[in-house]
Amino acid sequence: MQLLGIHHVAIICSNYPRSKHFYSEILKLTIINEHYRAERQSYKLDLALPDGSQLELFSFNDAPSRPSYPEAQGLRHLAFKVSSVENSKTYLESHGIDVEEIRVDETTGKKFTFFADLDGLPLELYAL
């Protein structure tokens, strides 16, 4: 067996319309499919990144909050490749999103920074 890449990452949000706007309009991910699953009273939104990987955005009634930030067991953060961390930081801040100061990875010498989605999920911008 050989893993060839990441197909998708699944995220459960607390406010579907708000998160749909954040990921599709602010982060500019392309909507592939949107389904309302009546039996679960849940939306599932498939979003594409330019490299073909995807995010699945779910809404579930009464989903528990993330227990802590960011060292809870499970997914620590989701990192996105960007051509310019500086330009991406400026863009997000222009939309009222708090972004940490830019740092440099001691191992690779690449710039990176963190911000959060509307539910506090830690997201990273990492330079190509």
UniProtKB/TrEMBL annotation:
Single annotated GO MF: lyase activity
Entries under CDD domains matching the protein: VOC_Bs_YwkD_like
Superkingdom field: Bacteria
Keyword Lyase carried by entry: yes
Coiled-coil parts of chain: none
Pfam families linked: Glyoxalase (PF00903)
Ranges where the VOC domain occurs: 5-128
KW Calcium (keyword) present: no
Alphabetical UniProt keywords: Lyase, Metal-binding
SUPFAM superfamilies: Glyoxalase/Bleomycin resistance protein/Dihydroxybiphenyl dioxygenase (SSF54593)
Protein name, as recorded: S-C lyase
